[in-house]
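seq/struct pair 1
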Amino acid sequence: MAMEIHQSAEDYLEAILMIKERKGYVRSIDVATQLGVSKPSVSYATKRLRENGYISFNEDGMISLTDSGMEIANKIYTRHKLLTNIFIKLGVKEEIAAEDACKIEHDLSVETFDALCKYAKEHGLDEE
């Protein structure tokens, strides 16, 4: 099981995954823009993530997720997409649905999330 990591670290890993899906590569500036934080904040966070083995940098300074980083990013991103989708299906505007998903995706217990997944599947709320 992956070590417990801080919510902001999860945010960074998720952002890296989202940027990678969108652009095909990830630079520190992309992460800063995505999360609305300063370059120094990104430098500090990515240094810690690298030390913990969640990301790596290539010689051009591009950021890649390691297997353990990808595992965490995928878990959070999957939660994010499902929660956003459920909120939209409930009639919440897309932008607000995504913001609210962000707020609760880290704090939701596994039990509650699994129950939501099951409910979503049974009621056809998990389709894109």
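seq/struct pair 2
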Amino acid sequence: MSGNATEQAPGLRLLVGSDGAGLDYKDAIAEDLREDPRVASVVDLGATPDDPAATTYPSVATRAGELIMAGEADRAVLVCGTGIGVAIAANKVPGIRATVAHDSFSVERSVLSNDCQVLTLGQRVIGLQLARRLAREWVGYHFDPGSHSAANVAEIVEYEQGCR
């Protein structure tokens, strides 16, 4: 499974997650996504307010990638201090394409040009309202497997499969 939203039934199955540095944004974004009619479900992978340090960014990011690749979710929105750590960690899961994006154009292109299944954001980098807006925008984009970009995504997938 590619995690490609265009192959899914109506309504995205989303994951949200963070370490302690992204907890506040993760919770706000999760609340927004639960109210979004384009979203079928939102599963929170942590961190929690009770013990924000118990969840590390690598553990939440790799778990999200594994669940997407197992077909249990379509996409994930992950938050850490910068968004960089969760992006790096999620990209270690074979088949996952994750990116940090802090502007609308990058969010759009992450899906339309790169079929990214994981959006990462930095709580210490952008304001809360922008983060919430970007997450809402991101769920509205769907990769077109017939687009010019599909050949580039296929080349990435082929390379990755050759490295295994």
